[in-house]
Amino acid sequence: MSICSQYFPEEPKAPVVATQEHPSVKSKVGIASLGKVFDSRGVYFVADYQKSNGNYIADVDGNVYLDVYAQIASIPLGYNNPVLHEVAQSDKMIRAIIDRPALGNFPGKDAEEIISEILKVAPKGQDKVWSALSGADANELAFKATFFWYQAQKRGYNTEFSSEEVSSVMHNQAPGSPELAILSFERAFHGRLFASGSTTCSKPIHKLDMPAFKWPKAQFPSYKYPLDANVEANKKEDARCLAIVEELFKTWSVPIAGVLVEPIQSEGGDNHASAEFFQGLRDITLKHGALLIMDEVQTGVGATGKMWGHEHFNLSPPPDLVTFSKKFQSAGYFFHDPEIVPNFAYRQFNTWCGDPARMILAGAIGQEIVKHDLSSQAARVGAYLFKKLEAVQSKYPEYMRDLRGKDRATFIAWSLKDAAARNKFLVDMKSVGVNIGGCADDSVRLRPTLVFEEKHADILVAAIEKVLSGY
Amino acid sequence: MSICSQYFPEEPKAPVVATQEHPSVKSKVGIASLGKVFDSRGVYFVADYQKSNGNYIADVDGNVYLDVYAQIASIPLGYNNPVLHEVAQSDKMIRAIIDRPALGNFPGKDAEEIISEILKVAPKGQDKVWSALSGADANELAFKATFFWYQAQKRGYNTEFSSEEVSSVMHNQAPGSPELAILSFERAFHGRLFASGSTTCSKPIHKLDMPAFKWPKAQFPSYKYPLDANVEANKKEDARCLAIVEELFKTWSVPIAGVLVEPIQSEGGDNHASAEFFQGLRDITLKHGALLIMDEVQTGVGATGKMWGHEHFNLSPPPDLVTFSKKFQSAGYFFHDPEIVPNFAYRQFNTWCGDPARMILAGAIGQEIVKHDLSSQAARVGAYLFKKLEAVQSKYPEYMRDLRGKDRATFIAWSLKDAAARNKFLVDMKSVGVNIGGCADDSVRLRPTLVFEEKHADILVAAIEKVLSGY
């Protein structure tokens, strides 16, 4: 029996389309009512999580959708997973919820065990972790670690701060508040707080009206598809983009302490780059004494057919920091260099230092992925799905441009001709019972759970064909 | 029977001091072992939360401390509170844990109820809430709301962004990324991310080596104690500090969009200011078209004898944004002006938009506080305790300078002559069975739970006397 069937004996066999409109009557009432106390303008529909099961999400109007969006890529093991249900009822979880520790000062005796579970699925070469609360938080804490490390390299790891640093920092002035930068890429998404927002560059709406650090943006490769027919052109594109990074290191007005990059630019359009490109970044950071931060918030935790997306690239040496969130339901960063632990206590610190309740869940999720080899399953199902989508593409090339994500499990995307066509497609898919999401302005991204199997792929492809055949 | 006895029939009658050193053997082993995977240099002791109960926290060496620090002011209703235990086991909580929604896109049908519970204890005049994940996150989201609002005032609430804004923002340049500031105060603490860090000004260690926004710092009043003997001098101090704020509005190199202030500067030393000072800030922000943000991360949720610390000031009109975290176990901000909801969707947005599991807990905490009027109880117990501490102060004036927090419930602090004396006192208190924290360099702060009663105050005062009598 497949793992999905084991977890979810009651999983629906197919979507239920109960209403003509999406959102329908009850969802609309719910959205309006919720809107009185909370910004509900982004709500697609009001969900009924009690009735959601496995790969299917139910709404309050009786629709049951096959969910290939999964809470913006963040449900790992399906809705109402029985193993997580058990974890949620455990004594350890209950205590983590009601006796939330200030983890940096008063960890419980199970803290080490909780953290070690997460480390069991750390990327190769990483043996330490620091915990956070969201992807943006994880990235910003990784920036802090990067800046601390960068300055420690200059002044000596154990050197005390100068009196000038200690006084100037209270006025937000150098040298205590140094002028340093994180380099990121056009079309990248790394979060929406102020420093993470300064590295985000996918859509203006994410950051308009927010003051920003004047940090540099390099260009991320824009490949021609299909990849195997465009090898030379794409190689040139890698070289062009790496040269820009190199140039920015040499010319940017303030020193660049770290390079931040997604293994696949997700929110920004599922833009892929080669192992050679990433190794090039690794080499440039080493050459210039900067750190390499891999943002695995969306690509991590099995989604690309390996536990961590960057493991497809065999980077040597491994990245310095790897941030995570979403499918782990818990956030933070992995690292291995002991000097990424700040030289003095209380520098990387805050009241909660993460949430043990969510960390317990992350450990359990990691365990299940390893136990059932769900990364490999995602790779297998993704290969099956990709082939079927190639067939659809050859029938409807207008509506499935630049199909991408081959050999990246179910982390698959394609483009339509423009935003209007893409948005219509997303809405139309609801009318055939599929909840599906977009990325960039014109693209569709698949982000199913790790218990998405061939039978679900068949339903998805049939639904896509049904919609496209009506165009 | 008192509410504490009702909740905790098994609460210890007194601390247990089982070891000479704190931390002792097992804690030290645990700290070293935890340190291999996590930065454990800030750990006081390894706690045994299973054995912790009510106002008492146990460590792994058999010590049981009366806890007047409460996870850096963030345990609201005592350890292993039975009501929260029930909430943690509820179906609603279990689903919130295992089916974590992307709240802005796919809220569950109970989302409105969960949010409304939190709104039931909103500060007077606030009828909307936006959720976050930590105090720093809450403050930064409040900054975003402030900057969005400020720019909307200039361009018109429903006006589209200009093409220049849309293109410049992708390069982190004005006008899309405008040069705007949040004004905060010297000795303030508002978090340790990059924008919140730029408003924090309590200790250099919180922000050294982090790039910062060049935002202004005004001066927060430094009162002479006891307050009733220094009325005139303190009034002058208010006027002096307000004049600085006014001056910064007129002279700062970039426009100030908001003023951020704690009702009592907590981390920075329990620095108090008068209702008149805060009303002055309110008036200045109105005059200059800026928002007033009250950071209630530490002062909120009953701790000062009212649900919200700023309710002591009767501000008119009420503050524009009130941020919360800690004792609510959930974070976010309250507001009332509909124009603080951004003009377009997806501006104040992120994957999770808070954590329903923690929001359910916040609602339950609020309910219990109202049901048992725990703010009033804190006021009553605080008055009792303050009087006793005044008596201690008259015996040991050297070790209890500037006793402060009268009429602010158990939100009490005092200073010693320097950091060394303060640090020694904190350690010595452990040897008589009390877990107690500091603020600023030279001060002691009391932050017990809301179920701290007269009997606990007696134990605390006796312990303090025991320590001081040995000096």
TrEMBL record, chains A, B:
UniProt key word Disulfide bond: no
UniProt keywords, alphabetically: Aminotransferase, Pyridoxal phosphate, Transferase
A GO biological-process term: gamma-aminobutyric acid catabolic process
Superkingdom as given in the UniProt entry: Eukaryota
Pfam families: Aminotran_3 (PF00202)
Enzyme Commission no: 2.6.1.19
Any one GO molecular function term: pyridoxal phosphate binding
One GO CC term, this protein: mitochondrion
Cofactor entry: pyridoxal 5'-phosphate
Catalysed reactions, semicolon-separated: 4-aminobutanoate + 2-oxoglutarate = succinate semialdehyde + L-glutamate
NCBIfam families to which the protein is assigned, alphabetical: GABAtrns_euk
Family note: Belongs to the class-III pyridoxal-phosphate-dependent aminotransferase family.
Subunit: Homodimer and homotetramer.
Identification of the protein by name: 4-aminobutyrate aminotransferase
Organism per entry: Spathaspora passalidarum (strain NRRL Y-27907 / 11-Y1)
